[in-house]
Amino acid sequence: MKITEGINRENQQQDQLSMNLNGDRGDGQLDATARTDAQRQRLHNTWNWYFIVEAGCVTGANCFFSTASMTYKLVSSFLILLPCLFFMIVVLPRVYDKSERLDRKTADQPVSKTGAYGWIFALLTLVCLPMGAWLDGTAILAQLFIVPQLFIAFSYLPALGLVGVLNIAYLAMVLAGKRFLSTDLSGNLMLMILVVVFSAMIGKSFNVLALTNGHNQMLLDKMESQQETIRRLSRAEGASIERERVASEMHDTIAQSLTSILALARVAHEELDDDLPAARKHLEMIASTSKSSLDDTRRMIADSAPADLDGRDLKTALDRTVHSTAAKTGFQSQCQIQRTLPPLPKQTEVNLLRIVQESLTNISKHANAQHVQVRLLLKRPELLELQIKDDGRGFDIQNLDFQEMEKAGHGYGLRDMAKRAQDAGGRCTVTSVPGQGTSITVNIPVERPSNTTRPDKEER
């Protein structure tokens, strides 16, 4: 019942972890979108402030320096502001929201960068600006902000053509007798020519600037997308590593304990009829193993250290593991451990203990050994060596087929030991000869001790 409650709590924690991961993914996507939108908004605001200042200056000149009536001034100001506002509200956001359209060579650009919206803006410009200039000649200054907008909304040559058409309309008004800015016919003609020439000169710069801004926006979008992909892959890798860790912990604890319990139960069942004291002893071992497995399960749920390390140092944990396994299995054990071990990271201690546990489990299940020796000594001041030797049946390591073994449910232990040694920064070497036993050696680098005295050893 306690195990069931613990597993239920673990499932709740895993559900919460999954919710957190999904939430993190949503937050990451929202953050990326928010950063992209903020960049677009800054770009829009830069242009919008430029057009607001220009339109404000032209409208002010139209209202305060023109000799037209107030009604004509107001209507003229409305007419020149209408296409400007349409561009700022409708056209400009769509120009930079379609960054892929701007990331092209000039020859491949569409005529209108925003499709029909650009043509509506062009129609408003060609209709409203001449009408406004007809009512009040000062309104011709609206080209100060309309010309850049045309080059942003259209590619270079179409925008220059629209500027030319607009000035042709002004020219027709001049020929019809309308005068702008209180100049004579020649002055107005010169003004039209200068506007077109000036537009041709600066229009290319505005077009390149718009293309550059669009390309930068596209790069920002791609970068945010790649960062989100990296975050997603990192979460997936973390989840995979965590699943591998949990599977390894279950293999090293629960699976081994269940194997021992099954073996002891079979022995106890055979002894119930003719050797009740021995059966009672094995039942006590089953209870002890079950309690240890329950403790490991609880600590696995809490992501803590193995039960054998709970409140004990590595030396004591190894000694206890070796002798308890020997008592259950029946082989004779010898445990030789450095009296004073160098300080090790907690995870390294866990890995060393798990390697010993896995080795002893393999010996109990497959080796049929009579003697087992476990040694943990400093081979050099900066190198710690763990060795587990037995005199069992051994095996031909050169001809092992791990894929076939794993299909049959075996072979995980050797891979797990090698992985744990690698995680600790060392390496695991397995030597075995059929009929001559097996030796597993793990070398782990450690920090060089400050003193140079010869380390003491303890042999049991």
Biggest sheet strand order reads 4-5-3-2-1-6
Q: Summarize the helix and strand pattern as letters.
A: HHHHHHHHHEHEEHHEEE
**Shape verdict:** rod-shaped
Counted up, domains total 2
Number of DSSP helical runs = 12
Number of strands: 6
Helix content: 55-70%
Mean pLDDT: 75
Describe the structure.
By secondary structure, the chain is an alpha+beta fold. The chain folds into two domains: 2-235, no CATH class; 309-460, Heat Shock Protein 90. Helices cover 68% and strands 9% of the residues. It has twelve helices and six strands. A six-stranded mixed sheet has the order 4-5-3-2-1-6. Strand 2 (371-380) and strand 3 (383-390) form a beta hairpin. The longest helix has 87 residues, at 185-271. The protein is rod-shaped and about 130 Å long. It starts with a helix and ends with a strand.
Break the fold down into its secondary structure elements and pairings.
Layout: H1 2-64, H2 70-97, H3 99-102, H4 116-135, H5 143-153, H6 156-175, H7 185-271, H8 276-301, H9 314-329, E1 332-338, H10 346-367, E2 371-380, E3 383-390, H11 402-407, H12 412-423, E4 427-432, E5 438-445, E6 457-459
Parallel strand pairs: 1-2
Antiparallel strand pairs: 1-6, 2-3, 3-5, 4-5
Helix pairs in contact: 1-2, 1-7, 1-8, 2-4, 2-5, 4-6, 5-6, 5-7, 6-7, 7-8, 7-10, 9-10, 10-12
